[in-house]
Write a structure and sequence with these properties.
five-stranded parallel β-sheet; nine-stranded mixed β-sheet; 2 domains; alpha/beta; Urease, subunit C, domain 1
């Protein structure tokens, strides 16, 4: 299949330029800058008039929970990868806290088998425990983005605490990035007990941000940075949620980086008043000032990447207060339009969105031939339009069927998504459910 994308505005590597782009098979064959009105040749199987559209690299979402295996009543690889395709996400890294957890070579191999159902490209983080680092190092490094480490309350027995347990992970990771969830369990447990004693088991959802407060994030993040500096580890701190953590990371070495997730960029504690437990997540939503610091960090370099932490639950599981409702929310389908909408608010620029969601994840994790619009690279591409899109129930593709953004009007929409040169999503025809993506390959440097 040979495709011409004609007269697009390509947003790539810091520039916005008018161009034609030719896709041949899985790859980008040619990029023609400053194109004429004439179509270059007539040997194309498909020609797309992209006048007025912006062509971006496909988004690499480094942080999702697609719930398979074991939790497929909430979501599965098939449904969530379809939602990803509809949102311009062409590659994702899935987290290990499934049932069973992805904490062994065998469990990771089973995840890879399940990944063949995915409608876009896939990779799976193995997860560290107190005793499994040596086994994880038997997984081919070219097939994994890194190692996921939960340094805070976690499901599935994956909590790792204390220097004797943490040190082997940081010291043996080598060139593999270690992505950490940083919250201090002792602080969480103490504050949870305070809330139970004062307000009972049905305490309001807003107390979730009291329980999982700034201090619990800072304590754990400081410990992770200390260990990474001691052993020279490539540390990527997931879903940073506070201004204070950004200050710590800014003072750390270049091998220590920050991820921001969409929930902490869009919401703050004030939003519990109208969204309640729908925005309950871990780490918790923080203050308005924290959100503003995170938004500033998108442009000043203190935040390297933006992901979703897409974590679907059934709507019934999101009812109740801070102790009853499940933590997490679905985000993958609307992450790119939401981030692009921040450009209209003056928070950041179009090239910066692409840097945060495409280029930087590709560089950090050593993704091969993806994340950039370059000749010879795999044709993971998304066409977007500056046009309002209201999020209504009938367009939500995640299995859970709801979104905290329901009823919101975003200022951008995804028109088409190409995965390995294949039109996997069109706003006119939906997701091509016959297509399946590829396993992602990695090259980890020093």
């Amino acid at each position: 299949m040979k495709i011409l994308i004609h007269h697009a505005t390509i947003v790539n590597e810091g520039r916005c330029e008018k161009a034609d782009l030719i896709v041949a098979g899985n790859h980008i064959q040619e990029i023609i800058l400053s194109p004429s009105d004439e179509i270059p040749g007539d040997d194309f199987d498909k020609t797309i008039n992209a006048e007025g559209l912006f062509l971006l690299p496909g988004v690499i979402d480094e942080h999702v929970h697609f719930r398979e295996p074991g939790l497929t009543q909430k979501a599965d690889i098939t449904t969530e990868s379809a939602a990803a395709a509809a949102g311009g996400v062409t590659s994702y890294f899935d987290m290990p806290n499934t049932l069973p957890t992805t904490t062994s070579l065998a469990a990771w191999e089973e995840k890879m088998r399940l990944g063949s159902k995915s409608h876009v490209n896939y990779a799976f983080f193995p997860g560290a425990t107190n005793r499994n680092i040596d086994e994880l190092l038997n997984i081919p490094p070219s097939s994994i983005p890194g190692i996921k480490l939960f340094m805070g309350s976690s499901t599935g027995g994956m909590l790792v605490e204390g220097t004797p347990s943490l040190s082997p992970i940081f010291s043996k990771a080598g060139s593999l990035p270690v992505m950490t969830h940083c919250e201090d369990s002792a602080i969480i447990n103490q504050r949870a007990q305070e809330v139970r004693e004062r307000f009972g088991a049905k305490a309001d959802a807003r107390y979730h941000s009291y329980i999982r407060n700034e201090a619990c994030c800072i304590a754990s993040t400081r410990k992770a940075i200390s260990l990474a500096e001691q052993y020279g580890t490539r540390l990527h701190i997931a879903h940073v949620s506070t201004a204070a953590e950004l200050e710590l990371i800014a003072l750390a070495g270049a091998r220590i980086t920050a991820e921001a997730c969409l929930a902490h960029l869009l919401f703050c504690e004030d939003d519990y008043a109208h969204l309640g437990s729908l925005i309950k997540c871990n780490p918790s939503i923080k203050t308005h000032l924290d959100r503003e610091a995170l938004r500033k960090g998108l442009s000043d370099g203190n935040i390297l990447t933006v992901a979703t932490d897409h974590a679907p639950h059934l709507y019934a599981e999101k009812t109740g207060g801070c102790f009853e409702a499940a933590s997490g929310m679905p985000m993958v389908q609307f992450s790119l339009p939401a981030m692009l909408s921040l450009t209209d608010d003056g928070v950041l620029t179009l090239p910066r969105v692409v840097e945060l969601m495409c280029h930087a994840p590709a560089r950090l994790f050593g993704v091969k031939e993806r994340g950039f619009i370059r000749k010879g690279y795999l044709a993971d591409l998304v066409l977007v339009k500056h046009e309002p899109m209201t999020i209504l129930p009938d367009i939500i593709l995640s299995k859970c069927g709801w979104s905290p953004l329901l009823g919101e009007t975003l200022k951008w929409k995804v028109i088409s998504t190409f995965c390995n040169g294949h039109l996997v999503y069109s706003h006119l025809t939906g997701v091509d459910t016959c297509y399946h993506g590829q396993a992602i390959s990695f090259e980890h440097g020093d």
